[in-house]
Amino acid sequence: MTQIFDRTDPNEADEYFLYCIRNGDLKNAMGCFDPEAIYIGKDGNAISGFANIEKLVANLCNMKADIKVYEHKNAPVGIDMMYWLDKWTMTATDPEGNTINMKGVSANMMRKNAVGIWLWLVDNPFAATFFAE
Amino acid sequence: MNKDGNVISGLANIEKIVANLCTMKPDIKIYKHKNSPVGKDLMYRLDKWTMTATDPQGNLIKMQGASAHIMRKNTDGIWLWLVDNPFAALFFAE
Predict the structure, then answer these.
(1) Tell me, what's the ipTM?
(2) Chain B contacts of A121, Cβ < 8 Å?
(3) How many CB atoms lie within 10 A of CB A70?
(4) Helices (H) and strands (E) in chain B, counts
(5) Contact flag B68-A105 (C-beta cutoff 8 Å)
(6) pLDDT single digits (tens) B7-53
(7) Residues facing B30 on adjacent strands
(8) Could you tell me the domains of chain A?
(9) What's the pTM value of the predicted model, to 2 decimals?
(10) Would residue B82 count as lying in a domain?
(11) Domain that holds residue B80
(12) How many domains does chain B have?
């Protein structure tokens, strides 16, 4: 069953992104990123450019990863940006059949596009790794 | 964003907090940071910091923390704080 999300609400924009991943929908998952988006990898380095980010998101979509956000905090910045902190868990099965259980915390940024939809501008799901080092 | 995770906006409100810091003339040191550009005029910045200061009663204050910030370049090319969250690590530790 297809779910309807109001992506002009940042919470539902996030839920939609996770829904796309869970359903292996790479095209629409990538539609959740701002054209200037960066993704911060586990090593703390930034990955920019749709094609590069798509490779990472494709891995998640291929596994149909079940990512759940169990706590989050939004803070508006001006009229078109949102500072976003969250805590998440992920369960998935890798191509070799191994179960993956992960958890982490994110320090993200969203930006509203011209039609009012919230998109990821900074996606940093491993922020805690930097802080723990 | 303050220690309890609440957002403070408006320059006048932010000024009250910065005034407290300036009054103590604290020594804030960044011992690790990572900047990631976002487009032409935004910067995502993570850092770890220590602070030593003396409060108005003469008590020594020693703090440390980790920040997740956003900076924006103004029309003269100067980087300014857009999001200042020096207590990001507290959210993560809860």
Answers:
(1) 0.88
(2) 38, 42
(3) 9
(4) 2, 4
(5) no
(6) 999 999 999 999 999 999 999 999 999 999 999 999 999 999 999 99
(7) B49
(8) 10-132 (3.10.450.50)
(9) 0.92
(10) yes
(11) 11-93
(12) 1
